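Box 3.1 — From sequence to structure: DUF2510 domain-containing protein
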Amino acid sequence: MSMPGWYPDPAGGQGRFRYWNGSAWSNETTANPSDPAPSTGGGGGRSSGRDRTFLIIGAIAVVTVLIIAWFVFGNRTGGFGGNVPEDTNSSTPTVSGWDETSSPTPPPTTAASTIDCPITANKDQTRQSNDGRLRGGGISVQRIAGWDDYSMYLQWVSDLHTQEDFVRTGWMSNVAVGQLNYEDGFDSPQISARQSMECYASSGYYLNFTERIDLVDEATTISGHSAWHMRSEVRIASPDMPEIEGDVVDIYVVDIGQANRMGIFFSSVTIGDDARQRLVDDCIASLRVD
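Predicted structure (token representation):
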């Protein structure tokens, strides 16, 4: 899946790069994609008093010109109440430069979800132990040796804990466990697994998405608890990574028998990467309810 980083500016800035943090594009751009990530603070600094003075003078000048133009040309056009052609431009710009003959900049993925992926407010955090297992959402898996802990963000998942392994610059494989909360609208493991696959495939982790091919969509059990498993190929076509076809994504949603939450497991492995897929399959085999 795509990692946060600098990518060619989707707004079309020639030779410019814009930062993708996994959920949104930055306001800042750069000509050097090796620059550090921009700060997550607000917009630019406050304008100086001198700047404000120039703005006020400029506004007064514009108003003065408009008043003079009204007196000079008003009678020729029937005044402001005459037959003036309708302004069909929108009140807000659709692309930079107010060029309303252009199409708006597309979102970072063409895999628009047909469901409304919620943003959870749940702040649960499972304490990680030293027993070699990755825990979250009431479930756990055996950690993969040599893979690193990673702070991943999925807006609809809480208590998310992840391991990742770099495949190449801009691309990685991962395993993760977390929590789906009933208060966010999730229901059965089946529906929740399908919703989560749709949200995941349409997230910013899959820039240049082309298609999703579902390979497995079936009921299963984990530690005697009802669960649902989906395996899909999430395919991309990136000009910067032509050798990457996409990921094999596995999702398990497990009814852990609690009234407020379910456990969820994610994994993503580059299509055709048999060695990493075997590691992840072994990890999946260790999935259990704690």
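Summary of the box: Residues 47 and 53 are 10 Å apart (CA to CA).
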